[in-house]
Amino acid sequence: MASNLGDLKVLVVEDSPAAAKLLQMVLAGLGIHQTFIARDGKVAQDFLDAADDLVDLIICDWKMPRMSGLELLCQVRTVYPEMPFMMVTGNADLESVRAAKKSGVDAYITKPFSARQVQSKLLALTNNMTNSIVYSD
Amino acid sequence: MFGTSQDITESKLVEVELQSAMAGDRERLIAAGMSDYTSKPLDRRRLIELVDSWRPGDTTTRETREADMFDDGTPILDSHVMDDWQAFFSEDEFIELINSQATDARSCMKSLKDAAADGDFKEVETFAHSLKSSCGSLGMRRVGSVATALERACRNDRFEEAWCPRSTRSWRRPWRFSRNAMRKSSKRQPKTMKRWRGDCGNGE
């Protein structure tokens, strides 16, 4: 498992090309160059089925065609209960945050976001990942 | 905040606060002899910028300030958002960011207009959502708020009330001004150009 941000392999699930581009640029700026872009939850699910070893962490939008971010989160929690999952969404209402939390989201960022927010959440998630390895040993 | 009021040319500064900002208020009050204007509820940042702009020696001209604000004092572009991105990205990356987001926003606006012409509310909601996202990322506050209102209206089945031929006009001007402000922003250096992103625990 990745011990620092630069080693992370991230699956970005985002239907908006602009938002996906922005996230990819921010991740690259943080030293994360192993990123994959899926345009909706269904594409992401198929990618995970075929190559889950290429993904350490998922960053996902909520509102997408075919399969929403919340639906993907539920699927991921069933198959990969330990996969870190960060929601980056325009849904800023408490109800959405609660629903995501109930479904097992690890981090939640509302749009518009800053690079610092992404970095802070990623560092927290990376620390959790490292700690979980320490504890399991 | 007003501890340095001695620096301000008092004869010039007359502020008028109104409980509500009506379109054209600013122009009428300026025409009546007021030097400047802000509306309630007060925006702390806006108020500080306003007071600062009247300091003696400030080189910002009235024309420049007016070009950066809408009539009700809403910034066309949230300069703090732009400064954040400019401090994070290299110059080339920053220009790439602006171009990609602006291209997407333009495409969204066209698709949204087409969907509205077809009466496809679901599509309008989808494109308004995307527009809100790309404009929000760049601090294009006014265009973002128009998109947010439209998305909410579609979600609540109030599309007919929210959309009319004037709707496109309501964001055309904010969009044009935002785009110009972005171009201007891309040509200047932010006040604090500190590339902080290296502190990622990966030695970069």
CATH superfamily of the largest domain in chain B: HPT domain
* Helix and strand composition category of chain A: alpha/beta
Q: Structural class of the secondary structure composition of chain B?
A: mainly alpha
H-E string of chain A: EHEHEHEHEH
- The strands making up the biggest β-sheet of chain B line up spatially as 1-2
Query: What is the terminal separation of chain B in angstroms?
Result: 39 Å
- From the N-terminal CA to the C-terminal CA of chain A, the straight-line distance is 13 Å
Q: What multimeric state do the chains show?
A: heterodimer
Radius of gyration of chain A: 14 Å
CATH topology of chain A: Rossmann fold
How many strand elements of chain B? Answer: 2
Tell me the fraction of residues in β-strands of chain B, as a range. Answer: under 5%
Number of helices of chain B: 9
Examine the coordinates and then state which fold CATH places here, giving the name of the CATH topology of the largest domain in chain B. Four Helix Bundle (Hemerythrin (Met), subunit A)
CATH class of the largest domain in chain B: Mainly Alpha
Sheet with the most strands: spatial strand order of chain A: 2-1-3-4-5
Q: Count of DSSP helices of chain A?
A: 5
What does this protein look like?
Chain A has 137 residues and is of the alpha/beta class. Chain A has a single domain, classed as Rossmann fold. Helix content of chain A is 48%, strand content 17%. Chain A has 5 helices and 5 strands. In chain A, helix 3 (69-79) links the parallel strand 3 (57-60) and strand 4 (85-89). Chain A is globular and about 30 Å long. The two termini of chain A are 13 Å apart. Chain B starts with 16 loop residues before the first strand and ends in an 18-residue tail after the last helix. In chain B, helix 6 packs antiparallel against helix 7 (141-155). Chain B is 58% helix and 2% strand. Chain B has 9 helices and 2 strands; from the N terminus they run βαβαααααααα. The model of chain B is unreliable at 1-23 and 57-67 (pLDDT under 50). Chain B is an all-alpha fold. Chain B has 2 domains: 5-65, no CATH class; 79-186, HPT domain (Four Helix Bundle (Hemerythrin (Met), subunit A), Up-down Bundle), CATH 1.20.120.160. In chain B, strand 1 (17-18), helix 1 (25-31) and strand 2 (38-39) form a beta-alpha-beta unit. Chain B has helices at 25-31, 44-53, 62-68, 79-88, 91-117, 121-137, 141-155, 159-162, 165-186, and strands at residues 17-18, 38-39.
